[in-house]
């Protein structure tokens, strides 16, 4: 089981005695790797090692520092200043006032709730459908390449454009969604999708699911193909049923992929105001706002101070989530590994 | 070999640098950067033609027109202005002039334009709009937006009416009779989405027209807000009935494009909109030219209507490198053929006195604008406080609250009380 | 090896995949059909699922009234150069992060993740000022540099996964044979990782190809516009030019779809080699 063939280079076979892939949560040391048959690094060469590390990291670090971190840090100071575009003659330091303004805003609890709903209700169907597609795409069939290219295309469209496209499709009088539902006999009267807060929320989530399934499908499909066939053969010999194979072999095997993909998607969906902005602009009655669309609204009012504070709150929330997510997925993996070893 | 790769990479980077660099002419030609904000492809094309004409007359001036997409334009322009780089002439609107001049991003042209021969050709409204309260000129208007009622002549006639509605009550009556949900025929293209607040205010202003402050459409003569007036509630009563009885249910979320679409595809009979829409509706294949026209803005029980004129124009950035040349460009755009062409093709209320004598403005859909100009006592032009710093905050607040009323989560009374309080407090604390 | 499929299983699979295909493709069909209608026929009621008159008017208009060819060329150059450079740079950083243990590593990885959380607008203003100082505003090279920086974090995380799946014995053997580490990386590991690198390149390319805000902020003149900016230009405050926009959207999606079709095997194979086992 540990004997794994290197993909992409079938003529080089190496037995590395690696354990089933361990998650290497960002920030975590990976002691298991070292003990699993890898030669420990020679510590004598530390100076040279340091140079290699620095030299190889330098280009990436320079680019990211100059064009991502520098502007961001410089921009973040707006969060601690009175920074309103309607009057920039006074940009005095106000400490945490902007953060207070965000957290004390009457809209804050509702929008936070909406954000949670938006993330979870988009993520779960994306995950389930993406998983199903990936599972079923493993089996080869004619035109599979074409099929993949077709179902992967939503990912190639920008979020704002998707928003606008779906806004017209969900238009209650001239939209194609109502027309199709009526033709299918599912509804009698056109539904005023974007005019009613709950329906509008449903509509933007449908659009987001449509858009986001692709990423899960690609990532999971890729991960599934990394499961060696002999694992399944062994399971079959054991007489494991389909459901058992899925839950006891497939999912545990690609769990680290799933964990990382989910993490990335949570961050991206959280930071995905484009679609909502194109589709409802946060309405009706501001009830489809999530934190990041609300932030755009605040910038449009010119209050960059408050908007930046909200932006940093978003970063903080996501950081806390990431840390917990990484700890949870790592802990579980370590525990299971211990169980497997004993 | 390692260095070989590195050299190669450097070489590529250098080559990219060379390719990216643009060469600047050094023969004394000045290149103006001009930025527009209400961008649309047809207008950009027209502007380029006008600019080409200007360049022909001024061979030493080149104009580089920057046309960011409308949705991102304001943010981009603010960044450019803040950096103090890259803008000479720019489009300034009544909603942006306040904050931009406060931030000292705009150049006051009043001294340079003293004694300009073009002033006498401008309409009174245009001259007035070109000066702010401190008599500074941050932009010269290129035209005006004003409301008129687009209506379907055939549907009105079929419903048994001889004339289009002249006031809000008549509109409600006609629109309600035309509405037939089963046939997907609706009365009024209601504005419930972006911009909803403005239309509510237009209705209220018509009801308080007798006592309105001629200098501020949101104030009464006695200094209180129009929202505190008892007539305001009557206005809302009629206005929201229009939604319940005579509009498509989804119009809760209708903004500009949906409204215009709802009218041009034939599904609604009435539309309250800017003259810009004339061109769009004129291209409609769903309704023919003889099926629609425009009527003057609706009056209230006072028999008067208040025309909430909106405007935009061309100004100069304070950090502009070539102010005299930019000024020449603005003068050129604000006079003669250039201005007339621009207002005609964009369906704007013209800034030139002479333009209203043009046959173009006397016939068809434009006739109602002539009617309105001819009766300034009935169709009173009152400036709206669109240049206050809190205008965008107000727009978002008012739009959201109108939707709350439409969804039954707020009563019209609460709406008015809240708006009255908002403006009264802003005026007290503001300048 | 996949177990044999039962008849109900097959029915479930085929119908599910077919249903999802329909759902995904319908909006694409809808834009394509809209783009092929005559400009005046776009909004007719009842809704026409097949255009009465097919017309290429919207497409010819793109090239006649707008410099759409120029926009495509700009997008191609910017996205291809930025994606290639970002992939190359990320290979180096990913390699180090996969192969070495060092103290600041966890901090670096967290910093990589944080770049995905930052709302772009915070950085836009200072970025514009920086690019003004560097004299790189309205310059394709400037946009390329920024795109490279934006692509690096995710690309590094992705490529790091590939490296971790390749035993280090491979390049160590090469180094013992006298190759420098740099050459070992590009001569020995590169071929092994080719599918993964192609996948990373495509991710980068699509991200740059679709990027709007940075492009709007940093580019001024019409000659330097990229496709997303042009696409958004069809939305004006009072009207959306659906005909031109859907034609432009189809032209925008086509290249990425072709890329996907050609590379879908590489993508899956590439990711298979471990990107996602991060």
Question: How would you characterize this protein structure?
Answer:
The complex is a heterotrimer of chains A (342), B (431) and C (278). Chain A is an all-alpha fold and 342 residues long. Chain A has two domains: 1-40, no CATH class; 42-341, MetI-like (MetI-like fold), CATH 1.10.3720.10. Chain A is built from 14 helices and no strands. Chain A has helices at 31-35, 46-76, 97-104, 108-137, 144-151, 159-169, 176-183, 197-224, 229-237, 242-253, 255-270, 273-279, 291-300, 304-341. The radius of gyration of chain A is 25 Å and the shape is globular. Chain A starts with 30 loop residues before the first helix and ends with a helix. The model of chain A is unreliable at 1-44 (pLDDT under 50). Chain B has 431 residues and is α/β, with parallel strands linked by helices. Chain B has two domains: 27-145 and 310-351, D-Maltodextrin-Binding Protein, domain 2 (3-Layer(aba) Sandwich), CATH 3.40.190; 148-306 and 377-429, D-Maltodextrin-Binding Protein, domain 2, CATH 3.40.190.10. In chain B, 43% of the residues lie in helices and 13% in strands. Chain B has 16 helices and eleven strands. Residues 1-5 and 14-25 of chain B have low confidence and may be disordered. Chain C is an all-alpha fold and 278 residues long. Chain C has two domains: 1-55; 58-277, MetI-like fold (Orthogonal Bundle), CATH 1.10.3720.10. In chain C, helix 1 runs antiparallel to helix 11 (242-272), helix 7 (169-176) crosses helix 8 and helix 8 (181-210) runs antiparallel to helix 11. Chain C is globular, with a radius of gyration of 23 Å. The two termini of chain C are 24 Å apart. In chain C, 55% of the residues are buried. Mean pLDDT of chain C is 85; it is low at 273-278.
Beta-strand content estimate of chain C = under 5%
**Largest interface: chains, residues each:** A-C, 108 and 105 residues
Overall pLDDT score of chain C: 85
What is the overall number of helices of chain A? 14
Please state the oligomeric state of the protein chains shown. Answer: heterotrimer
Helix content of chain C: over 70%
Q: Indicate how many domains the architecture of chain A comprises.
A: 2
Extended strand count of chain A = 0
Overall pLDDT metric of chain A: 81
Order of secondary-structure elements of chain A:
HHHHHHHHHHHHHH
Under CATH, the homologous superfamily of the largest domain in chain C reads MetI-like
Helical segment count of chain C: 11
CATH topology of the largest domain in chain C: MetI-like fold
Q: What's the main sheet of chain A like?
A: none
The rough form of chain A would be described as globular
C-alpha-based Rg of chain A, rounded: 25 Å
Keywords (chain B): Signal, Transport
Pfam families (chain B): SBP_bac_1
Protein name (chain B): Sugar ABC transporter substrate-binding protein
InterPro entries (chain B): Bact_solute-bd_prot1, SBP
